[in-house]
Design goal:
Layout (H helix, E strand, L loop, with lengths): L3 E7 L2 E15 L2 E5 L6 E14 L7 E14 L2 E5 L3 E3 L5 H20 L5 H22 L2
Parallel strand pairs: 1-6
Antiparallel strand pairs: 1-2, 2-3, 2-4, 4-5, 5-6, 5-7
Helix pairs in contact: 1-2
InterPro entries: ATP_F1_dsu/esu_C_sf (IPR036794), ATP_synth_F1_dsu/esu (IPR001469), ATP_synth_F1_dsu/esu_N (IPR020546), ATP_synth_F1_esu_C (IPR020547), ATPsynth_dsu/esu_N (IPR036771)
Protein name: ATP synthase epsilon chain
Function: Produces ATP from ADP in the presence of a proton gradient across the membrane.
């Protein structure tokens, strides 16, 4: 069937670099499944989990990466994801993600109480989405 290379890069450097046989990512246009020899494509990514089925995985376990937006590019059997931040499932600090979720929920509640639906509310909603994404990915490793 073949494989392709998956690279996930953040401003902190490369966080994932492996051969894969399948990848699923959530783009602005919807869910995207990638197999070897995929047509070239560039698309913005949503805040969501990226599932990667590794080429050498004999027990059919998927790797999960929490990606907080960014861009996916597919070209010549290389999938490159460039994200502001991303964490592999084993690198997620669950306590920190839970604390971020609680802070975001408190900010959203305060903004609703004050009828303030401005930039702070938008930022809190994005922070909540990111925290939930990280917790969802962390829970996949259990």
């Amino acid at each position: 069937m073949g494989s392709f290379v998956v690279n996930i890069v953040t401003p902190d450097g490369i966080i994932f670099d492996h051969h894969a046989k399948y990848l699923v990512a959530n783009t602005a246009a919807g869910s995207l499944g990638v197999l070897p020899n995929h047509a070239p494509l560039i698309s913005p990514l949503e805040i969501d989990a990226v599932r990667i089925d590794l080429e050498d995985d004999s027990d059919h376990k998927s790797e999960w990466v929490a990606v907080n937006g960014g861009i996916i590019e597919i070209r010549d059997n290389v999938v490159s994801i460039i994200a502001n931040s991303a964490e592999t499932e084993e690198n997620i600090d669950i306590a920190r993600a839970k604390a971020a979720k609680i802070r975001a929920e408190e900010k959203i509640a305060a903004a609703k109480e004050a009828s303030d639906h401005g930039i702070d509310m938008d930022r809190a909603e994005i922070a909540l989405h990111r925290a939930i994404n990280r917790l969802n990915v962390a829970n996949k490793r259990r």
